[in-house]
Amino acid sequence: MSQPPGERSFPLPSQVPTVPGAEGWQEMYPYFSRFQPEDDHRFWFYNSMHFPEAVPAFDSITSEIPYTAIGANTARLFSFPTTMGIEYRIVNGRVYITANPVVDEAEQAERLEHFQERAGHYYSHWDRLYAEWQQRIDALIAEIEAIEVPRLGELEDLAVITEARGVASNHFLRENFHRCIDLYSKMWHHHTEFLMLGYGAYVVFFEFCTTAFPEIGDQTVARMVAGMDVTMYRPDDELKKLAALAVELGLGDLFAEGGHPGTVLSSLRERGDAGARWLEALEAAKNPWFNVSVGDGFYHHHLSWADDLSVPFSALSGYVEQVANGEDLRRPTGRLAEERDRIAAEYRALLQSEEEKAAFDQMLGLCRQVFPYIESHKFYCEHWFTTRFFQKIRAFGQLLAERGVLEQADDVFHLRHVEVEDALADVMLAWASGGRELGARHWQPIVARRKQIVDALAQWSPPPALGPVPEALNDPAVRMLWGVTDETIETWLGDQELDEHTVRGNAASPGVVEGTARVLMNVNEIGRIREGEILVCPVTAPSWGPVFGKIAAAVSDIGGTMSHAAIVAREYGMPAVVGTGKATSVIKTGDRVRVDGDRGIVTVVG
Questions:
Q1: Same domain, 352 and 304
Q2: Which of 28, 81, 321, 425 is spaced 20 to 30 Å from 127 by Cα?
Q3: Is 46 helix (H, G, I), strand (E, B) or coil?
Q4: How deeply is 494 buried, as exposed, middle or buried, from its count of CB atoms within 10 A (0-12, 13-18, 19+)?
Q5: Residues 344, 349, 353, 359: what is their CA dihedral angle, to the nearest 10 degrees?
Q6: Are 503 and 582 in contact (CB under 8 A)?
Q7: Res. 379 pLDDT band, cuts 50 70 90
Q8: Helix or strand or coil: residue 537?
Q9: Does residue 350 share a domain with residue 403?
Q10: In-domain check, residue 37
Q11: Average pLDDT of the chain to the nearest whole number
């Protein structure tokens, strides 16, 4: 489809060519995730916050199910007045999204009545309902942890006969795999049950502030709810305790920067009682706090700390050195809380009427009540539960490899989840009949080809957006989470005059600092970060907390003032500029850069 004359536009979805070497990528994803001809009329932006890499076939479930749950909660359960859900499409392995707004004022008014009743119930009983949510998510984690992949022996265990169970083990291959998928779906419904309401409370307060105080910046509003203690920081706190214990036990010399975890662990085993005590403390911290992914919980290969110790151990060296030097490793939560209250008091004093002040107090109070959920839920949902989910799917892959259907366990992630079910049915039939599985000749060539496709797709540089430029794009949630505003779009289009050594973004966390840049394009590279460097990346996740303990500032291509990268930077008290759009293409590792978190400007100075 051609671009309408005179209309400003990013490339249209239909104009995006297939990446050379990735022909046939479409077969890796469900039909409803692919762009349709009518999608050329709509604006889409690349969700590199959650999907910074090409998506393998199985991992496409991490867009399908979350957007199903988000839309159900915003559109159908709580009836958000101005928005329905988010639609997504995949092109060349990358996830693009668009929000479906409610523009008719009469419909908005009708939906608002429902929202006030439904959301009001949750806001009025937040603490009790949140406690009940925690019980539900704990139960879901326990349930997925208990799922087993049946072992198919020569004969069933005699107990199946003596207890007259009446169901053979091969049945449970499909049932237990289904349970994994169903529990993942249920987790995401619970995930967004409170999350969208949390964002909703902040959006209302944000809009009140921008109306009452036209000159107020996004960052200033965000700082009024900073300094909260949330569960997502607990893994990093556990690392700091381990660092302190290492110094106390005289083991600090073993944690040199750049040391391989395996080497460090071997050395600890040779240090007698002191080494044994430290290793015991490590094991105690691992469950559950090392069930945190190096990513944001959307890719099977973003392993947890427990699966890959390189990330936590890369932080331990710096923490051990800081403890040995007598430095305080605690986040500046107290200072942030004082600053939070000071800013709120100053702006409250500018309001003219008692009614306005009462409304301000109510909205800010609700924001502070709901904010901890916005970060804390991530540990239980995207990290602990999702780590277990991928581990269970990998175990099914191991069974398929043992039965000769796949070459290795991780090949299962190059099949769509409905294809995995077919492969399991092949095993179920072969075991039952005494025949042999037929899947090797069918699936192994498909897996080999898809690996080549994913490798080819990894070389693609996706445009930041697709489709015609909207007349206005000021959706508060899109602005705060992804940092996509009218100004962002102008920058993407290259309409703003920018020095070739300067990038602009959202001022996410205050302060100005200069340092050496470390550009990381992949979360699996974060072990390369060195003390005092400035992190430049497409996007960060809250699980990068230990890295924030080492760096001087953070810069990202994507993100708004309430993105997780922005929140983490504020909690660690360091400058951050997010949503630059192109920092990773302008800045190179080793560049001397100045990060101005007050103005949202990053400059290469040498």
A1: no
A2: 81
A3: strand
A4: exposed
A5: 10
A6: yes
A7: very high
A8: strand
A9: yes
A10: no
A11: 90
Instruction: Give the side-chain half-sphere CA count within 13 A for 70.
Output: 22
The reported pLDDT for the residue numbered 2 is: 44
Give the least confident one: 108-122, 437-451, 467-481, 514-528: 467-481
Q: Which two tokens stand for residue 428?
A: 């179920």
Question: Distance between CA atoms of 350 and 357, rounded to whole angstroms?
Answer: 9
What is the DSSP pairing of strand 534-537 with strand 512-519? parallel
Give the Cα separation of 184 and 305 in Å (integer).
21
Host H or E run for residue 175: helix 169-212
Q: Are residues 222 and 364 in the same domain?
A: yes
In angstroms, what CA-CA distances link 356 with 134, 347, 349, 568, 605? 35, 11, 10, 31, 46
Beta-sheet pairing, 601-604 with 502-504: antiparallel
- Six token digits for residue 56: 């393998």
Q: Is residue 518 a contact partner of residue 536, using CB atoms and an 8 Å limit?
A: yes
Return phi, psi of residue 501, to 5°: -105, 10
Average pLDDT over residues 473-498: 71
Q: With contact defined as beta carbons under 8 Å apart, do 367 and 225 qualify?
A: yes
As a whole number of angstroms, the distance between CA 66 and CA 72 comes to 10
Q: Which residues contact 192 (CB under 8 A, 6 or more apart)?
A: 66, 69, 70, 72, 73, 74
pLDDT band at 476; cut points 50, 70, 90: low
Q: Residue 54 CB: number of other CB atoms within 10 A?
A: 25
Owning domain of residue 516: 498-604
**What does the alpha-carbon distance between residue 176 and residue 323 come to, in Å, rounded to a whole number?**
47
Q: Are the C-beta atoms of residues 242 and 278 closer than 8 Å to each other?
A: yes
One-letter amino acid of 110 = E
Its pTM stands at 0.89
Q: Which residues does residue 535 pair with via DSSP β-bridges, in sequence order?
A: 518, 554
Same domain, 218 and 287: no
**Whole-Å CA distances, 490 to 284, 473, 493, 506:** 50, 11, 5, 14
3-class DSSP state of 463 = coil
* The Cα angle at residue 438 between residues 436 and 439, in degrees rounded to 5: 130
Q: What is the DSSP string of 386-424?
A: HHHHHHHHHHHHHHHHHTTSSSSGGGGGGS-HHHHHHHH
Most confident segment among 290-294, 536-540, 546-550: 290-294
CA atoms lying within 13 Å on the CB side of residue 139: 8
Q: Rounded distance, CA 393 to CA 412, Å?
A: 8
Task: Say how far apart CA 376 and CA 380 lie, in whole Å.
Answer: 8
Give helix 386-402 / helix 126-146 axis angle, nearest 10°.
10
Reduced to 3 states, what is the DSSP secondary structure of residue 518? strand
300 contacts 512 by C-beta, under 8 angstroms: no
CATH number at residue 546: 3.50.30.10
Please say whether the dihedral angle defined by the alpha carbons of residues 269, 275, 276 and 281, taken in this order, is positive or negative: negative
Model pLDDT, residue 3:
47
Question: Of the candidates 330, 358, 383, which is a domain's last residue?
Answer: 330
Quick check: is 88 in a domain? Answer: no
DSSP per-residue string spanning 220-278: HHHHTT-----GGGHHHHHHHHHHHHHHHTT-GGG--TT--HHHHHHHHHTSHHHHHHH
CB 386 within 8 A of CB 293: yes
